[in-house]
Amino acid sequence: MKNNWQKSWRIYLIACTVTVVGACSPQTKTSTAQNEQTSDKVVSEVAKTSPAKVQPKTCKFTMGFDIWEPYQFIGFGRKVQGLDIELINLAAEELNCDVEYKQESWGNLLSLLKAGEIDFVLGASITEERKTFAHFSEPYRSEEFQLYIRADEEHKYRQATVADFVRDNHKLGIIGEYFYGEELSGLMDDDKFADLFKPAFMGEINLARLIDGDIDGFLEDSFVGASLIRRKGLDKYIAAHQAKISTGDVYVMFSRTAVKPEVVSDFNAALRTIKNNGTYDKLVAKYSD
To answer: Model-level pTM greater than 0.85?
Structure first.
């Protein structure tokens, strides 16, 4: 590919994102003064109120999110939306809670979660290290990561697994602080292969690096990768490799500093209600079409 084309795509792909600011913690009692102060704040996005509930909201959450379409993204009119966002709105209705959204990179979100400056994030895998600063909900979906390569080089990469791709000395783009399963984690900790993993803070950067030849492939959630490539019009240049990684169930990850265990239990009850009444299946089907 020509250098001019590559540079233009790099500029186009690595676009600045707008931080949607909001911060608060779950609360069940609020003084009159606090209510007046809160009403004066301009919040970025508040979960819709269920028509069946007219009483004042009894709690408030701040959810941290990263741009990860179709799960979490900013759509028309700067509205925060996506499968995960709609799920949280439904759970908030069940709990009679308000939700504010704060956008950051995944690495920054983990730091904010540890500090209790946000209450929860979605799409998280459970690890021993994360258990030290987070509570986890019941699982709400499964996750699979796809390996993506340059379309005109499919003949070069015949590896059956992502681990084999790395062992054959190919550079792999990843997102910093993501969990890609135990096997890849082991390779990342191995001095022989550690330098082959090239972290970025967002998927668009890995896509640009692949086009520029800085990496040989990158990992992305199957739904997210397909959406990203389609939106950027790069179907002819980037292809899905046969290798995938299933990292299992994903969870809502709550801050131990900001959220009490009983709140997580209440959330789990709301999640079960959404699943049992068929609402969750309809939501997944909507984003699978």
So the answer is: no
